[in-house]
Amino acid sequence: MDDHSPRADAPAPTGRVYETPPTERPITDAEAARAANLAANEHIKIASGYLRGTLADGLLKHATGAISEDDGQLVKFHGMYLQDDRDIRAERTKKKLDKAYSFMIRLRIAGGVVTPKQWLILDDIARTYAGNALRATTRQTFQYHGVIKSNLKRTMAAIDAALLDTIAACGDVNRNVMAATNPAQVGAHREALKLAKDISDSLLPKTSAWREIWLDGERVVGGEDAAEIEPIYGRTYLPRKFKTVVAVPPSNEVDIFAHDLGFIAILDKKNKLTGWNVTVGGGMGMTHGETDTFPRTADVMCFVKPEDALKAAEAVMTVQRDWGNRKNRKNARLKYTIERYGLAAFRAEVEKRVGKKLADPKPFTFTGNGDRYGWVEGEDGRHHLTLYVPSGRIKDVEGGPQFLSGFRRIAEVHEGDFRLTGNQNVIIANVPAAKKAEIDALVAEYGLTNGAGALRRNALACVALPTCGLALAESERYLPDLVSELEESLASHGLQDEDITIRSTGCPNGCARPFISEIGLVGRGPERYHLYLGAAFDGSRLSKLYREDVQASEIRGILDPLFADFAKNRQPGEHFGDFVIRAGHVAKTTNGPDFHARTGALKPAA
Amino acid sequence: MSRLALLPRTAPFADSERASLDAVLGAATPIQRAWLAGFLAGLDAAGGQPAAVPAAPPKAAEPLTILFASESGNSEKLAGDVGKLARKQGFKPKVVDFADLDLATLPKAGKIVAIAATWGEGEPPARAVRAYGELMGDAAPRIDGVEFAVLALGDTSYAEFCAIGKALDARFEALGGKRAASRADLDLDFEKPAADWIKATLKALAPAPADNVVAVDFARAGTEDEDAEPSREPHVVEVVEHVNLNSSRSDKETIHLALAFEDGAPAYEPGDSLEIYPENDPQLVDEILRSAGLEGDEALRKALIAERDITTLSAATIERFVKATGHEEARKLVESGEARAWIEGRQLIDLIETYPAKLTGEHLSAITRPLPPRAYSIASSRKEVGDEVHLTIAAVRYETHGRARSGVTSVHVADRIRDGAKLRVRLKPNRHFRLPQDPATDIIMVGPGTGVAPFRAFVQERRATEASGRSWLFFGDRQFTHDFLYQLEWQEALEDGSLTKIDVAFSRDQPEKIYVQDRITQHAAEVVSWLDGGAHLYVCGDAKNMARDVRAAVVKAYETVKGLSPADAEAQVATLERGHRYQQDVY
Asked: Which PROSITE patterns would you find in this protein's record (chain B) (predicted)?
């Protein structure tokens, strides 16, 4: 249980020399952008006519399932990624077939709350266009995989019919806003959800391109005046992706330290909201072999009153819009902006844009970043059931749990709502006491489960192969097997009930936030991973590279002696991530800039 | 009346010779002149003396109309054979495609030989539909006194064996015609009996004794356009590419086959087909031998694998089986009249297993027919692939009556042929599926599934010849991702301009089925605009549904785009067909 009042381990600002922040607005002229040597994506955004590009034409090119490279960048702003099935890539050319292209479509569901009616529509879409699977993501929304180009418009129309959209679910914009789900804290959840929705709506791109391209909407005729078309973003949107979350202590389920912008609810003794601590500059992504790229945990910057929260969100985002690096995309996220110009200068600029001095952060405590499985009763007497969904894959498993069919049946009788968690699980929320038995019966009938072994329920994996174009190694298809191996090892040391976070990603971009889990695996090549240890259990401290390029088959052998040591020499209540540092196995990471320092095992494990 | 001086002064003859020639030629009928021209040409081409020399000026030869209704080209080929032989025997033959038949000419035809194929479940070949319909209709003219003979082609594996030939035979008689020779109904192994029938029939139709017949045999130098026709000799070819074009996630299997002709590929044209001589599945042969109690007869096994059709089951097969074995139960089946229904979905193995009997090799030979070759539309142009022929073959597999069945040739190719294997093949030309003469003419190609094969040849040809006409392909199959045959090649063709447009219809990618005909309807205005601009439209693939539905969609397109009545729209399409601008290669 780490106390953050305010961060005791924050790096001392002395000795750092920061650059002077820019005063110009971002370049929006094609000539000037070339002269300034801006990153390729900046040119694409400038030329796109507010995210249109040639997407409409590309949909009519029937011989290919792909779209043009530039459109491939733009379509992200519409919530989609062009992908191909890498499992069957090798055979395609010989068969005179193009790559097996399809699209990943990600929804915008602020706070991850959907009604049963929406669930049923989303289920229909999954069955009709997306290979009978709905996927709950690590950022509290749904995504579909495998939607082919000829079905994109139909799928988008169906999503629209569910009163949902996919705008800004990916791309250089404020993406889906996450919010704490804890159903026990009814009032705080309501506030967190409202803030998440308000931020999501107010920071949404205003271009009509989405409606035009996907729903055959009318092209809104008007001037090219950016102030009218995109009052907040302008022609070039943000330098890089921007992720926002809202947390309610003591749960850090949204992993606030891994996000660009965060709000931590500060509640009074009666659990009433008094305001929000604002966090800035967290982020996971880095590039292998480039030490000027690194993950970073967010700084807790200030405290805002409820009425100033939205303004503060917009200010943080627009400062990043103007200060962020547009020449080098690997150095463009807010975390680098803050490292470059310093938190003090950043805070001053935010205060300037909010129009007032902001207070220092208030004390708060997080106890972990996992979910509470099973039934809980809320303050209002409603009941909430958190179900465990391995890797968020809502599908019918042959000979196993029937997630897709089970949730559908529940949606048909459920009167409350559904909440997705940042850990890819599903909460059946707001169930009246009288209805609990019916839900329980369906859960049993379809083999759904409200838990798993301690390690498994704290596991998180990104999608990786076969659909993700960035993956270097397996992730979601591999982690369950590794967890089984490690569970045996843990049990042999009497640690079977120990909560330890373990996460894997197929590449270092960090979708499953591997650098803030106690055991982190990051893909390097087929069956090859970097192994990271020493993060804080609650996600507030980064890990450290412990072993480079380990074979999948070696991982259990490497961790087993550490588990043995932990079982024998841990202090009461001590978490595994803290233990490996105290016991001298691995160096502690203070924050991003020292992430790549003193890597490796500090001593033999046994 | 002054004689016309036909020969110019520059002609290489003495003045007296010119005058003599003018005297003869000026008085000659066009037929006599044409005959002479052919005679002289043939004489020179043969480089020798004709086998017979006219003793006297020829009498006008007896006209003979040879009608054919052809789908695969067999009837047409036979009609050509009749023509050749008839000419030798002193007829003045005229070979007429049903597609071009003007019914009004029939009453004056004098003598008619009709050769008709039956297609699918007792339907006329697609090109013959119009004229056949008219002939069967109330408005058909009387042909009193016209002598006729009908040769019917069919396939005993279909219920309505030779139905069209039978109907024509009856109809000619009903219209007042006089049957000169009785009809023959021939199965896939028609070549020998057809030749016999033709000889006998021409004899029956022959005019007065042959002392005034000029029989001229120019050896190779025929008078028809077969000079230009490439050799139909079987070749043994090597498989140089064998790849399943469908993805490993597909439930379909379509083999792309590249065949190399060591001795040079026959001079095929885009639109032609290639026949493959298949072998039977050895496992099925073994099952038949086991059921017949003939295991261990290696010679018989070999013969059954390579030479006999051991899958087709027809009423005739059962009758022959009963005759050979005297099997009582089987006889009851025949006598009950239910044999035809029982055949549905069954094969020879089912017969032998259901009615076990001790059989001999001779029995099996008597029961079965020779194993016919199977024709596939050629998917390549010689201008692009040289001495290769490419084919696109869908493996046919299905289950009936609890037994897995497979197409003889397609599964032979899919399962038992690999790179480096040898196949025996024979070219089968198809003059009715040809690119426009003018390379500037636009083409619309409708070819779902393996129907796309000839269009790969068309696009290759038009690329190689740098044809300036536009081209538009309608392709369809089940799934875009897994069944898009030759996807990369179409992308290249679009890139280099040899293909102008492509529209696709994948039936299983969305809840409702979408087929090529739906795409035609969707783009009706543009399709009609291309056709108005002179485009040719080609359809290749499934005859049963697709070709019919595509045609209906084109008719409908004329209706909706031009506001025509259904009858007028139908007439527009019929006009296209008569002008050979709407061509089909369906199977």
From this structure: FAD_FR (PS51384), FLAVODOXIN_LIKE (PS50902)
